[in-house]
Structure formats: structure tokens, C-alpha cells
Amino acid sequence: MLQLRALVTPAFANRFFTAYTCAIVFAVILRYCFFDARDPSKCGALMNEGVWLDQPLEKHSDYVPREWQPPGCMIHNYKPADISTCLSGRRVVFAGDSTIRQLFWGVAKALDKDVDMSKAEMHSDITVEHAGVTMEFYWDPFLNSTSTNREIDMFEGDKYYRENSNRAALMLMGSGLWYARFETVNGMKKWKDNIDGIAQHMRYGRKTTDLTHQDLLLLAPVPVPAFEKLNEDRRRTITPQKILEMDQYLQQLSDIQGIDVVWALAVMTRAMPQTFEKSGLHLVDSVATKQTDLLLNLRCNAMLPPKYPYDKTCCMMYEPPNYQQWAGLFIVLAVLPVMSYLRSKAEAKGTSPPPWLPSDKITHALLVFGLSVAYCFYADRTQVFNKFHKHYTTFGFLSMTLTWLVMGYLTVGRSAINVPSQPFLSRHQTDEWKGWLQFAILVYHYTGASKIPWIYGFIRITVAAYLFMTGYGHAAYFYKKGDYSFKRVAGVLIRLNLLSCVLPYMMKTEYIFYYFAPLVTFWFIIIYITMRIGSQYNGNMRFLVSKIIVSAFLTALLVKYPGVLEALFEIPRVIAGTQWNVAEFRFRLSLDMWIVHIGMLTSILAAKLSDGSSPYSGNLPRLRIYAISASCVSLPLFFLFQTTRETKFIYNGYHPYISFIPILSFVVLRNATPKLRNCHSSIFAWLGKCSLETFTLQFHIWLAADTRGLLGLNLTGAYGRGTNFALATALFLFTSHCVAGATQDLTGWIMGVPEPKQALPTSKEEADKDRAEKGLGLKVKCAIILAGLWALNMTYTP
Fold this sequence. Notes:
By secondary structure, the protein is mainly α. Among the domains are: 45-55 and 67-300, Rossmann fold (3-Layer(aba) Sandwich), CATH 3.40.50; 452-487 and 509-672, no CATH class. The chain has 32 helices and 12 strands. The strands form 4 sheets. The chain has a 5-stranded mixed β-sheet, sandwiched between helices. The chain has a 3-stranded antiparallel β-sheet with strand order 8-12-11. A two-stranded antiparallel sheet has the order 1-2. Strand 4 (126-130) and strand 5 form a beta hairpin. Helix 5 (98-111) packs across helix 12 (285-300), helix 14 (360-380) packs antiparallel against helix 30 and helix 18 (486-507) packs parallel to helix 32 (778-794). It is elongated and about 100 Å long.
């Protein structure tokens, strides 16, 4: 065991996970190029396959599932505005029997929830017009009417690909049940002859399943009814053998001629009689709605204006990169590797590298940072990686939570061997706290637990705890160090925002979208201003506390009073053309309105008590007993209150005023004894050191579709969620760890922090480079960065 621990050094772990990352990325690219190339836009996946994520385990369950998952992509829940945007001025045509009519009504209700179905006659054509979209249904159970043939003719030959405003944007046909029931003499031959005639008008000999940006002529499979629910007359004529033979013939035409059959309509109801109404032929509303969404996703996903969140990834080709994205990818994938090569080549020859090259450490940091951003792009802005819907289960949430807790417990150890006692809220302790808070947030996001009120309330506490530590840490630094220099402010702001300022350009999002970095940036500025004003009197306890309280109320006024925050956001909009969601940011600020200032007050109180300058320092043992007793009572009472709120929206109203209760209680109990203060969990502390990066990068390389879904690595089959979770999590955490180190190095480089020199400069080039690095001041560098961001904003192509 000791030998194994000696082998598993940080350097070994770094090499192992670097090799692991390269292997995973190579395998994903290999699969995409050689196995997924025939279905580049995931139209075939949407049209042919899928599973119910909430499918009941019991064979004869009455539960009707609601969460449909195509292999490797996400479907969009269409609203009327989306449908009218996609189909404005166009027609949608359905032709067939009553099962097709149900799909027609499904699309009609999705377009207009108030559509009147009562006026339609049983066996007749129907037309519905709303918001510029015309919906037509032809009652044609044998698919041989004049109306159906007229519509099909518009798709014939090269007309299929030619612009034609009269042609239907989407036409779905389906028949078979009436042939089985009423055509008792040569019924199968008549059906096949009719289908052969229709197939001549459909796509022939296709080489790809890409259906984006074109009008669709589709066949529905012959539905397999719930035979046990059919009445005696239907059960006698509509037999499993007839349905099977019809669908097998459609499958042959699909495989040989390439006609488009929406097989997923049948997969949704396969071996699930509970998805049918008591007639055995028609579907329950929730399943019919999913079939409606499937059809709309086939036709409309590629037609809607592209904008984040990109949560409709089936049958959708991502927009090509704009010139800024191409430039970023070129720099990352070409320029930075060349820079690294030139430096390593010079070192191998024992010569000095070109003076314009940064040091080996900074070159490596730039490469790591750049490759991680490029990984975000290819993971969440291309079809290279799969995307899955989230699916909450109590078992999944609890099992993931228990796994992290066990790992945290098994890595608990003493914080420092040579230090007899750690101080109150030591660095080890706050890193650990950030770590397990981050684990809680990651589990919450991955499992989609936001719909559970008590879990949502707990996660709200974790975000408040982060902000409490922001107020505590920065106020303590300013109080003890008195360092209000530009260098301190610039260093903190660059470290907080480097990643969240780069990603919006590469991912076509916005800065506020990665809300945690903007949130802590806002609060850092508030803390700085509060502590800086009258800083020469900060030694006066009454003055300092009064100043913090006044700051709290002025900040609340700034956030809550309509128009003030809008005016502040108007400044960068006018200067740099930014478009930030003010309402969303106000919501984030309002939720944790007071906790940062409570953190500041706590840090001042802790500093006064620890240095003995407080009049209460002599009563610390008694105060500790009171605090521990109050915490033991208030903590369970708080969670009892929080878990009994009916909805998360109700809890949000209380949260800003009560979130300090569990946070201060935890702080007191965590530091109640020397043993508790002197130990910490190393795995949680490790994650805490890169919590900012994990919070930001999870949006694109662990989650997907801008947090709406989950990222799939394409290596575990279409639905291997468990194995995919393990592989993707290891890759995500390693990437976050590397980016955290790279960001730290790049921040030091920008700040002009000198790197340790092994020797004096050995050449004129090295000396010139040293002088050049020293000559560029921090304020000049910051001005260059701001000018670059301004130029990117002003020339940005959406």
C-alpha cells in the first residue's frame, strides 16, 4: 500500500489523466467520423429510435411515461410562438385515418390551445388556420384520394428540393388499419400497391438521414394497437400478423429505397398498452403530445433562429463559426501549438527561444486554457458529442450524494502536521467548504433536481454560503492588510473573470449567463468600496460596523429600486454594445441581498475576538457554549421550516432574510472543537480550489445545451447514462483542475508577478525580454485587455 501511494504522485496523476483525456477525445472523434457520419444532424436518431426515461419497471404498470429520449440528442417542447416562427405562411398536411387525425389535432392544439375540435365531423377533411399557419387534414384511410395525390405530386422528382411555397412544409401520411379491417380480399396486395405508388414520390436512394432545411414528405408506420383493448369486431380483423407484415414491408422500402418512415411513433407505444385509450387505437394525450413534438422537431429545429440555450439538438445543424470563433480556434489549434513547439525545439538545442515567446510555464498555461475553451465549443456547439435530457429520480440523486459524501469522509485527515491548532475558518476549512458545496451544486444540476422544493432550498443555501465566504474573505484581507491598491483589485477581478469573459465569444452566450463570476465580481466591488471609504478609521469598531450596515442598505436600494441597475447596465451597453439580462441579474442579487454583508461583519468580529481587542475576548469559552447551543437548536428548526415550504417560489421570499441562520450555525459547529478545526477532507478541499472553474465549465463540458441537458461521449451506446457519467465526470474534473492552474498562472503573468529565475540572463535576447516584460505596466496591460474586449464586442457577429 505504501509503495502504491508513493507511485501515485501528483505528477503521475497528471500524466495519467492527460493520457485519459487524449484517449477519450480521440475515441469520440473517431466514432463521430466513422460511425455517426451518416446521421450528422441526428434526424435519423429522432425519426427512428428512442426510449422513455421514466419507463416503468413493472411489465403491467398503468403509469404513462412522459420523458422521451432520442439517441444522442434533445427534443424541444414547442410553444405557439416557435411553431408560427417556423411555419409562418406555410401549410402542414396530414392524410390518413383517425390515428393520423389525432396527430393533426396535436399539432393544431400546440399552435392554438383554444382550437375548437367539436365542430369537426367524424370522417371529413379539416382545416385550421392560426398565426399565419394553415393546418389541413384529409380523411383518407386508404391514401388514394384526389387531395392526397395532389399534395404528393408537389414532392415528385426534383420538385422535392425546389422552392415551392404551395407545397406543404410537412406532410405526414399513414394507413393500414382500414386495409386490415375492411379489405378482406387481397387487402395486403392493395395496400402494398398503394404504398409503392406513394414511395415513388418520396426521397429515393438517400445517402444520409439529414432532413434539415427542407420540406418533409413522411410516412407513419402502421400503428400496433393495444390488441387486448380492441373490441371483438376489430380484434377479429386487425391481427398482429397483418400489422407485422405491413411494417416489415415499410422497413424494406425504408432500407432499400430510402423513404422516410417515422418509426419512433411506433417505438413510443411498443409493448406499452397503457399509452392507449380504452379503444386500443388512439393514444392518451401525453403520448400524443410527445409524438407531436417529435414531428415539429423534425421540421422546425433547424429553421428557428439560432440562439442560446441550444436545447433542441435533434435534426439540427449547428450554425457555422463566425470569424471570431474561427480566429479563436485557429489560435488555439494552430498558433499556440507552434509556439510550444518552437520553445521546446529551442530548449532541445540549448539555444534561447525567440524573445517574443512567453516562458514555458505561460505557454503551457495558454495552451491548456485555450484547448479547454475549444473543447467547450466542440462539446456544446457541434454534433460531435451527444446530448441527453436530464431525468430526476430520488434514487439517482441520493446515490450520487452518498457517493460524494463517502469519498469526502474517506479522505478526512489532519490539516497540517506541524501546526498544533488551525485558526477559525482556516484556508483548508474554507477550501473544503467550497468543495462540498460545489459537489452539492453539481449533483443538483446533473440530476435535474430543481423541481424538488427542499433540494432547491438547500442549493440556495450553498450559493449563499459561497457569497458569505466572499464577504468574509475579502473583508478580512482588507481589514488586516489594508491593501487597497490597483494591483489587488485588478488581480482579483482578472482571476474571477478570465474564463467567464472568454467563453461568451466562443459559445455565443453572454457574460451574465455564467452568473457566479459576475455575482462575486459585483459583491467584491461593493466590499472594496465599503472598506476603502474612510479606511483610515477602520480600526474604530463602531465606525466600521456602521459603515457596513449603511453599505448593506444602499446596496439593497441599488438592486431593488427600479431603474438604478438598468442605468448601470446601460453604461457598458452604450460603450461596448453589450446586451445583458438585467432582470436575471437582479433576481440573483436579490436572493442573497444581505449575506455578503453578514460575512463582512463576521470577519470583523472574528478578527477582534482573535486579537483580544474586543471587550468580549475574555468571555470566549462562555460565548462559544452559547453559540454552539444556539446553533444546535436553530439548524434543525431552519431545515424544518425550509422543507415545509410548498414551492421554491414561496421559499425564495424568505431566503434573503433567513439564509444566515444555517450558514452561521454551520460555521460555529464546524469550529466547535480543536479536533474539528484541525481536520478537513482533502478531496473536497481539492475541488474547492477549482470551484470557480467547475461551476463555469460544467455549463458546456459536463452538462450540455447550456445546462439544459447532459453531455454524452458517444462511447457507451446511445443510452449508457451510468458509464457515460463516470467517463465524462473524470474528464470534466481534470479539465477544471487544469484550467484553474492555468488561470492562476495567466493572472500572475498579466499582473507582472516575476517568475523564479534559475540564473542570470545568459544572452542579450533574454535580457531584452526581461526588460520588455518589466517595462509594460499593469495599468497598460489592463487598458489593452479592456480595449480588446471593447473591439470584440463592437465587431462581434451573432
